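Moderator note: this is an archived Q&A kept for reference. The question asked for a predicted structure of one protein chain; the sequence and the answer are reproduced below.
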Amino acid sequence: MKRQAPRKRTSIEVALRRSRDHSTSDAAAAAQRLSGRIAAEHLADVSYAALDSPFGKLTVAATERGLVRLAFPEEDTDLVLDRLASRISPRIVEAQAPLETIRRELDEYFAGRRRHFELALDWSLVGPFGRRVLRAAAEIPYGGVLSYTQVATAAGSPRGSRAAGNALGSNPIPIVVPCHRVLRSGGALGGYAGGLERKRWLLELERVA
């Protein structure tokens, strides 16, 4: 079956990005104010921003339902936004204000001051089985771990550890949905879409903090 090309983002989003890339600082500031107004007046369905982390810039995106995407620095932002446009809505705007709570909770987590995220989540990018797996992972307490088999069992599929691993590997909201807390039986790290060094770093943060 021929794959459909992702839908293009709206002219609003394209214009705003071009303004930031090619205009003077005053025009860029005006574009930023326009972005904030678009987000505040709910003219966009998805807001996104780049947030600082110990790993570099994270791209985070949210809808009115909640956090829908968290991408690591090595992920291509345009591809992330194209998928959001295709799967959720092309009405996307770059705006910091709607993501302020997300930024604050991530900062607190990385500083070792937060053990539980209180963020609303939007599961629109996740299918039914993946949602069960990720909800099970989200129940793993700070500093704790489970095996892939245990998570699969909690998701209602005791023999589905491989499928559970695939669902965890495609988790669109890592860190907040802590798939890094899922290990192989026996304690080996297993896989992680963000890389094993990053997985080890997150586990060490939670064990030391």
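Archived answer notes: The mean pLDDT is 87.
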